[in-house]
C-alpha cells in the first residue's frame, strides 16, 4: 500500500493525459473515440482511471487526515469529475459510471455527510419514479432529451417498454429475459442453452453472459453465483474495516464496492431493470482489459490484508 500511495498522483496524471490524448488523437470505432494507439498497442485509457481514481482520492484524504473541511471534499469532487467528463465525451457512459462510482465510494467512506447523501438519493428516487410514470410522453417520437445522446435516450426508453420494438431496440432485453426465465430451477445444462447457442443472445460471452449462465445453470446456479459475489464483497469490506491506515481503508472499501457495482449493473441490465451499458460481469465475462483491472483490484485487497498482518506481527 505504501508503494501504491507513492504512485497515486503519477498514475492519475498519466491516465488524465492519455484521456486528453484520446480526445485529440484517438481511434474512432462505431461513433465512439475510446482507443489510443501507443506504438504497436491499442489501449483504452479510461480503464486506467478505474484503478487510479480510488487510489488518488484515498491518497488525498490520507493527506488531509485530522483536518478535513468541506473544501477538501470539493477538491476531491473536482479530481473525480474531470476524468468522468472526458470519458462521457468519448462517449462511454458505462465506464464513466464505473469511474464515478469508485470515486463516490471513497468520498462516502471518507465521511461525506448524510445531509448531502440523503437529499441526492431522494431526488434520484423521485426522478426515476417520474421517468416511469411519464414514459409514454417523454418517449414519444420527436422528443429530444437534454444532456443525453440519441442512443442513450433510446436505451432508457427501451428499458421502460422493450415491447414497443420487440424485433429492434427491445430485442436484446427481451431475449435476455427469455433466457433467464427458461433456465428454470436447475438449468438446461452446460453448453445446452438454446437461446445462447442459436444466437438469440447478443454479446453472449461478454455483456450478456449472465443470461447465458442463467439459462444453462438455472436458479440454483444463479444463487450460487450471488453467494460467491456476496462472500467476496463482505470479505473485502472486512479487510477495509481492519485496514491500518486511512489510505488503505478508503482504497479497500472503494475497490470492494466497485465489484458490487460491476455485478449489480451487469445483472440489472440483462434482467431488464437497468439500461443496457457496456459493463462486464466480474470474473465471468470474457475480456482481457476488464479482467486485468478486476485482477488488480483483488491484488490491492490482498495487499491491504497482508499489510495489516505485517503491522500486527
Give the helices and strands as they follow along the chain: HEEEHHHHHHHHHHH
Shape: globular
Strand order of the largest sheet: 1-2-3
**First-to-last CA distance:** 17 Å
Number of strands: 3
Number of helices: 12
Q: Overall pLDDT, averaged? A: 85
Question: What class, by secondary structure content?
Answer: mainly alpha
Low-confidence runs: none
Main β-sheet description: 3 strands, antiparallel
Q: In percent terms, what proportion of residues is strand?
A: under 5%
**Radius of gyration from the alpha-carbon trace, in angstroms:** 21 Å
Estimated helix fraction:
55-70%
Question: How would you describe this structure to a colleague?
Answer:
The chain has 313 residues and is mainly α. 68% of the residues lie in helices and 4% in strands. It contains 12 helices and 3 strands; from the N terminus they run αβββααααααααααα. A 3-stranded antiparallel β-sheet has the order 1-2-3, with helices on one face. The longest helix has 33 residues, at 209-241. The protein is globular, with a radius of gyration of 21 Å. The chain starts with a helix and ends with a helix. The mean pLDDT is 85.
